Amino acid sequence: VVSKYCAIVCLNSGLYLDDTAVSFDERCVVGSVMDLQHNVLCRVASIYVPAQFSDRPLFLNNFLSLPFFSDMYTAPWVIMGDLNKNLHNMKVTSHSNVSSWYDWMRNYLVNCFPAGLPTHTQGNSRTTIDYVFGHRSLATRLVNGMIRKVPSVYTDHCLLSIDLVPAHVDIGPGCWRFNPTLLDDADFLILLDQTVELFYVSIVCVDTPGNGSHSGPIPAQVIWESLKALLKCCAQNFTRNAKSTCKNKLASSCGSDRSRSSSSATPSVSLKLNELDRKIDLQIQKETRQYMLRSATRWHENGERNNKYFYRVIKERQSKQTIESPKCSTTGSILVNSDDIIREARGFYKALYTPDLIDDAAVHSLLASILDNVVLSLDDSEFLTEPIVMDTLQDLIRHTPLGKSPGLDGLPFEIYKYLFKTSEPFRIMLLGILRVFSSKKICKAYGIKADSVRVLSS
Fold first, then answer.
1. Which of 76, 199, 222, 231 is 20 to 30 A from 3 in CA distance terms?
2. Roughly what angle, to the nearest 10 degrees, separates helices 220-239 and 186-207?
3. Position 169 confidence tier, pLDDT thresholds 50, 70, 90
4. Does residue 93 share a domain with residue 205?
5. Got the DSSP string for 321-375?
C-alpha cells in the first residue's frame, strides 16, 4: 500500500495485506496483516505528520476522527511513522495542539522505543521523531526493538525494527517419551540396573514383611505400573541438565585436545590425542542421533552432522502439529481465542474416545448364527487358549519394532528388550503380566462378554 507520503509493504510470503485504506491527505495508510489461514495478526498504520508546524494542528485533529481507528479499543493495532516531533519533550506533549492526540495514543498504545534514542540526523542536530507504537494487548509480544543507523546517502532517518511474536496457546510439554539413546550410555545402564534390582528387592520385602503381618500379595498390575513410573523417574533424573553436562564434556575434551596437540608429538601423546578424538567423535554422533530422534528423520549420510538441518526439521514438524485456529464444530467459524480452542479440543477428544454402547442383541445374534458343527479342533483350541510360555514371550520381544512404544507411558520396546536380556525378575514379571491380561478375569473387568471368550474353547 503506497501513498504520496508513506507506505506499508509486506515482504513475507506467508502473510498478506488486506482491508487496506488511505486517508484523503495521503498521510495515513492502514491495512490488516493476515496469515494464509485468513487470521488477522495485527492492524498496521503508517503515518507522516506534516513537517510544517502550522499544518500539524489540523492533521492531529482530523486524525482522531478517522474511521480507520474506530476499533482501537479491541483491535491489535501497530502505529508507526515519522511524527516530526519529539514526544519525549514535555513542552511538546503538553502543547494544546498535541496534548489531546498524545493522551489518546497513550490510552491505547505503548511506545516500543521508550528510551527516546535519536532517530533523525540533520547536520549536527540529532532528535527523536520516528516511532513505533503497539496496542496494549500486543505489549508482551512486541520484542527485540532495534534502531539501526542507515548510510546518509540513502536517508537521514534511522531504521526502526520490532518483532511481533505470534499468539499461541500454551499446550504444555506434551507426552513424555523415553530417549532410546540413553541405552548407549554406560553410566545410565549402571544406574538402570541398580534401580531395577533395588525395585525387585523392595517388592520382595513388602510382599513378605518380617513382623508377621501379611495383607496378601501385591497385585501384578500395581507392581507393573510402579515399575514403569520408576523407569520414567530414573530416566528423567539422569537426563536433568544433560545438555549442559554434554556441552561441558565436549568443551573439556576439545580443550585437552588443543593443549596436548601443542606439546611434542611423542607416541604416548599421539595415542592420547587419538583417544580424545574418538571420544569427541562419539559425543558428536550421540548428539546427532538425538537430533534425528527428535526430528523423526531417516536422512543421515555417513559423517553428516548438520545440526541446523535437524533443528529446522524439528521446528517444521512442531509447526505442522500445532493447530492454532480450528473451526467451531457448531458454527463453522474460525476460533482464535484460547478458551474457545481448548473447549473445542476437549469436545472433539471426548466424542472420539467415548465408546459406543454395546448392542447385546446384535452380539447374541452374531454368535447364534454360528453353526453347531463349525468348531475348532481340540488341538487348535488348546493352542489358542493355553497360557503364554517364556519361549513365546522371548520370540515376541525379539520381533518388536524399534522406535515404537506399546502404550501411553512413553517407554519404547528398546527398554523392554534390554531389561528382558539383563533382568530375570523382569522376565518373570512380564510373563505374569501377559498371563493376567489374557485371563477371563481381566476380560470381565473390561466388560468383555464371557460368550466371546468361550468361542475359542467351544
1. 76
2. 150
3. low
4. no
5. H--SSPBPTTT-PBP-SHHHHHHHHHHHHHHHHSPPPP-HHHHHHHHHTS-TT--
Residues 184 and 266 reside in one and the same domain: yes
pLDDT of 397 over the 50 cut: yes
> Does 136 share its domain with 268?
no
Q: How far is CA 388 from CA 44, 222, 392, in A?
A: 68, 21, 6
Each residue of 83-142: pLDDT tens digit?
Answer: 999 999 999 999 988 999 999 999 999 999 999 899 998 888 889 999 999 999 898 899
Whose grid coordinates read 535437524?
A: 310
Q: Which of 198-202, 336-340, 351-355 has the lowest mean pLDDT?
A: 336-340
Cα gap 401→406, rounded to integer Å: 10
For residues 234 and 344, membership in a common domain is answered with no
287 assigned to some structural domain: yes
pLDDT band with cut points at 50, 70 and 90 for residue 332: confident
Would you state the cell numbers that stand for residue 240, as one nine-digit string? 536433568
- Spatial CB neighbours of 182, under 8 Å, sequence gap ≥ 6: 188, 235, 238, 239
Task: Tell me the pTM.
Answer: 0.46
Domain containing residue 232: 180-321
Instruction: Let me know if residue 428 belongs to a domain.
Output: yes
Nearest to 192 by CA among 206, 203, 204, 178: 178
Which of 193, 170, 189 lies closest to 181 in space, CA to CA? 189
Please state, in angstroms and as integers, the Cα–Cα distance from residue 261 to each residue in 133, 250, 258, 273, 447, following that order. Answer: 56, 16, 5, 7, 70
Residue 367, pLDDT > 70, answer: yes
C-alpha cell at 295: 526430528
Q: Cα separations (Å) of 271 from 206, 261, 265, 283, 453?
A: 52, 11, 10, 19, 67
d(CA 402, CA 413): 6
Residue 379: other Cβ atoms inside 10 A = 8
Answer yes or no: do 35 and 158 share one domain.
Answer: yes
Q: Are residues 311 and 343 in the same domain?
A: no
pLDDT at 306: 55
d(CA 53, CA 211) in angstroms, rounded, equals 96
Let me know whether 236 and 297 are in one domain: yes
In angstroms, the CA 328 to CA 337 distance is: 11
pLDDT: is 195 or 311 the higher one? Answer: 195
Tell me how many domains the chain contains: 3
- The C-alpha cell 465408546 sits at 355
Residue 3, in any domain of the structure: no
CATH number at 72 reads 3.60.10.10
